[in-house]
Amino acid sequence: MPARSSSYPGMGAVPHDDGVTFRVWAPQARQVAVVGDFCGWDQRRRTVLAKDHHRSGTWSAFVPGAGPGSHYRFLVRRGGPYLSRQDPCARQVTGARGASVVFDPRRIDWGGEHFRAPGWDDLVVYELHVPTFAATAEGPGTFDTAIGRLDHLAWLGVTAVEVMPPFEFASGTSWGYNPSQLYAIESSYGGPWAFARFVREAHARGIAVLLDVVHNHVGPDGPHLWRFDGAAGRRRYGGAFFYNDRRALTPWGATRPNYDRKAVRNFLRDSAVMWMEDFRVDGLRFDGTNFVRSRWGDVRDPAHHIAAGDRYLAALTSDLRSRQPWKLLVAEDMQRDLAVTRSPQEGGLGFHSQWDAGFVHAVRGALEAVDDGARDVRAVAAAVLGQGGPLHERVVYTESHDEVANGRARVPEQIMPGQADSWHSRTRTALGLVLTLTAPGIPMLFQGQDVLEDGWFTDTRPVDWSKAHHRAGFLHLVRQLVLLRRDTAGTTGGLRGRHTHVLHADDGLLAYHRWDRGGPGDDVVVVVNLTTHPRRDVRLGLPRAAGGGSAATPTPRPTALGWGLSTRTTPTPNRARGTVAGTARWSASVRMPR
Q1: Is pLDDT at 337 greater than 70 in this prediction?
Q2: Around Cβ 78, how many Cβ atoms within 10 Å?
């Protein structure tokens, strides 16, 4: 009986009531088949796929005996024997080199949830790595054990988690940035069912889920896409899914996807759509978009520019925004390129936000300096201001997976190696969190930062959650800062506002005004002492109501927040001066617990 293509749509394994459609892109193959437990893994009983006439390079067949949970692999032949391949679009696998599994997202139990993600001005993001964030005495963490940590994050005031890439990888341990599958959750993390439970439980606690995805390279471990259909293009290059010239070269091997090919662009885009629609994640953070746009990550170098990468990203964000415009798209471009958050219609890439490398480097430079004279307050002021634009257009932080590894340690460890619990380390680390949570932008914490985790990040060292007890004072300080940022008491609305003005940036002292519309409960003045000695009699111009006040109607006072590196962290009240005047009242001041 001749092979017949399936009339059903969809790539990979698409289950129906009476069977499964299998479809795969293998443009240079001469024959494609599928084998699995539905035929006893007997290659003599394989189902041969037929070429789709309406598609370029795809093969498909409908298999009546298969269904959700069926294990399978594709058999691809160009010349010689069959090559056994995992499905590039498999939603579930038994391991990086195991079988693909038919998965039906319609069977996910969402419990009737109707989650509404927090507004972007209310986001406080917590970046986490599942195996080390949620490790137990039995071993590395999974999505199910991570659910047990969500109550802590809800108490802390966190409104979103960013999950480092949880996709199937071939190595024993991983940060996640070497995915062998873009559609399948790592089996040791619990697979797709556990991930769906994690999303559901996060939403039940009011916490959005952002997923870190990798489109700048695939692998290089377990490269099942490498020469998938048997064709190599050129020697030592990877065939249909990859560039086959020098554009293939990345810091992670010759594994850059070929953005010039429509089928490859669709393959990448459809994975992003799946996470947002089938798994209900609330946003995506795209790893290393500068390596999509440039061979070596510097988009200012025209010799290494990849124009197709720019076009791909702009088309991708346009598609995703048209489907679910309320979900957040974040780029890790790390070049402070305003084109990243400009709309495609204006020649931009269309992301809502991007990680701000300028903030972390300037602030950490000041925190880690040994002497007061080496703390560049003007650089910190510039970092706080950023480059203007809406509040959500940048993500600010002092720790991330990159900033606490690769030769660098966590902030308290960098300040005093081996003495992360010292007074100086704790105070300066807290000051970094103050700047992160009061500056304009979406603030982000890295796992363990709330308990003053020390050392550096690896994929085998779990967060030491016992520190939540003997560093409880620091933990409560972080919580109070998060609640101030979110204006839970109704007195610090300006920290969620659109406007920032630096009032003072000299002699180690930084003061800035945050507001949205202004007025009581909105105007916030933040004063930060970057020196190690107390400051007194500091005169600042503070906001006041138009027309001033009188004895009968006192001048409304802004909320003023003061912090410093010195042991005296409560600023002395001072008379104000300047074109906007008012009486300074330090209505919120936080002392570092000893």
Answers
A1: yes
A2: 17
